[in-house]
Amino acid sequence: MKRVVITGAGTINALGQNVPDTFEAMREGRCGIGPLDIPDVDRLAIKIGGQVQGYDPEDRFNRQQLALYDRFTQFTLIAAREAISQSGLEFSGALAARAGVVLGNSGGGMTTLDENYRTVYEDGKNRVHPFVVPKLMNNAAASHVSMEFNLKGPSFTVSTACASSNHAMAQAFQLVHGGAAPVMVTGGSESMLCFGGVKAWEGLRVMSKDACRPFSANRNGMVQGEGAGIFVFEEYEHAKKRGAEILAEVAGFAMSSDAADIVMPSKNGAARAIKGAMKDARVNCSDVGYINAHGTGTAANDKTESAAVADAFGAHADKLMMSSTKSMHGHLIGGTGAVELLACIMALRDGVIAPTINYEEPDPECALDVVPNVAREAKVDVALSNAFAFGGLNAVLALKRFT
User: Fold this and answer.
1) Is the pLDDT of residue 122 over 90?
2) 294 is catalytic
3) Can you give the pLDDT at residue 356?
4) How many CB atoms are closer than 10 A to CB 369?
5) Secondary structure class of 199 (helix, strand, coil)
6) Helix-strand-coil percent breakdown of the chain, rounded to 5?
7) Residue 70, SS3?
8) What's the angle, vertex CA 210, arms to CA 205 and CA 211, rounded to 5?
9) Do strands 227-235 and 4-13 pair parallel, antiparallel, or not at all (unpaired)?
10) Annotated catalytic, 316?
11) Mean of pLDDT values over 28-50
């Protein structure tokens, strides 16, 4: 089996429109959540989100491209350009024929859907743009990344709600690990911050009106975000041969299904995925120094995840650092695991642990070191990234510091 390393990273999210700015915001514990700037926000009960500010698509794409690119696709391409540029790879010949792209996404072209419902139902028009279907389909971003970068190998989209990105990156890891592809572009994206997207989530009654406070006793719900995180997963010998900079090693993963409830998480399902990731990576509990938590800021998730970590790690749970960066950038649903993987890379490569901001009151049912409010310097050799989705679909990635 092949070793898998990360040789490129790219992002755009509420904290920054590239990786360096995102790292800086995470180090500073800066909050990217604020008032939403979308049509009909006055009709919403939830008026905040982790929205990408100062973004003008016309600065990045021409008119012909924008006719085909929903906002989630735009974010994906921006992040992919940064990641592939950093990797130094050019895809042609035999490499292009085998390299591919696997992305995670949950809502697809929600903005396009919302706009066209308005066109038909509110404006009373009987025709929509001929590119509506290819613009809103969930695989649009993966297809456009493959076309822009000449990726002719395995290319597809994974949609498992809030675990989509982790499931996608796991598939990319497996393809490189097993020798099916020398390079895979992977990660995820989401843009559901439109009237219809937020209104639908309001119906679940899990949203906060003021802030995301994971693991804090006074938390009152999650906050949506938007953006993308994209990475280049590469076979180690391939990367070594060309002298590539290596950000971290992807060491293992595991997936599980609660098979219990469509919205309520299960401690057992989450714990099995955590244990499985460590087993696949061939690491012990004591090797793990940091976990990027799913940490949504809902009572059900935070308590269940804390219990799952305690179950999986036993006595070592008290020595772990575990933070939720959703407190800063919001919950990107299908794209969330990809942006959160950046926090794992920062911990492994730079020795900086992103904090859980907005933490105000200890919760005895979440009695772990959640790195409250202020970033911390610490050497980390192994990090885990948790993702636990509606439907009881769990995916955990294990990364190692590259030496």
Assistant:
1) no
2) yes
3) 99
4) 16
5) helix
6) 40, 20, 35
7) coil
8) 95
9) antiparallel
10) no
11) 98
Q: In this structure, is the dihedral angle defined by the CA atoms of residues 220, 293, 330 and 175, taken in order, positive or negative?
A: negative
161 touches 225 (CB < 8 A): no
Per-residue pLDDT reduced to its tens digit, 208-247: 999 999 999 999 999 999 999 999 999 999 999 999 999 9
Q: 324 falls in which pLDDT band (50, 70, 90)?
A: very high
Query: Quick one: which of 398, 403, 402 has its CA closest to 290?
Result: 398
Total residue count of the chain as it appears in this document? 403
Q: Count Cβ neighbours within 10 Å for each residue of 265-301 and write b for 16 or more, e otherwise.
A: bbbbbbbbbbbbbbebbebebebbbbbbbbbbbbbeb
Catalytic-role residue among 144, 167, 329, 331: 331
> Stretch 128-141: mean pLDDT, rounded?
96
**What phi and psi values does residue 177 have, to the nearest 5 degrees?**
-60, -40
Task: State the Cα–Cα distance between residues 69 and 48, nearest whole angstrom.
Answer: 25
Spatial contact of 260 and 358, defined as CB atoms under 8 Å apart: no
Could you confirm whether 331 is annotated as catalytic?
A: yes
Give pTM, 2 decimals.
0.98
Average pLDDT over residues 105-130: 94
**Residue 16 has what DSSP assignment?**
B
**pLDDT tens-place string over residues 23-33:** 999 999 999 99
Q: What is residue 287's DSSP assignment?
A: G
CA distances from 81 to 17, 18, 185, 231 (A): 12, 10, 11, 10
Q: Which residues contact 262 (CB under 8 A, 6 or more apart)?
A: 390, 391, 392
Catalytic residue among 31, 144, 162, 167: 162
Is 370 in contact with 214 (CB distance < 8 Å)?
yes
With cut-offs at 50, 70 and 90, classify the pLDDT of residue 93: very high
Alpha carbons 307 and 316: distance in angstroms, whole number: 13
Count of CB atoms within 10 A of residue 351's CB?
14
Work out the average pLDDT over 273-296: 98
Provide the H-helix boundaries in 53-158.
63-66, 71-87, 93-98, 110-117, 132-136, 140-149
Catalytic residue among 144, 167, 177, 294: 294
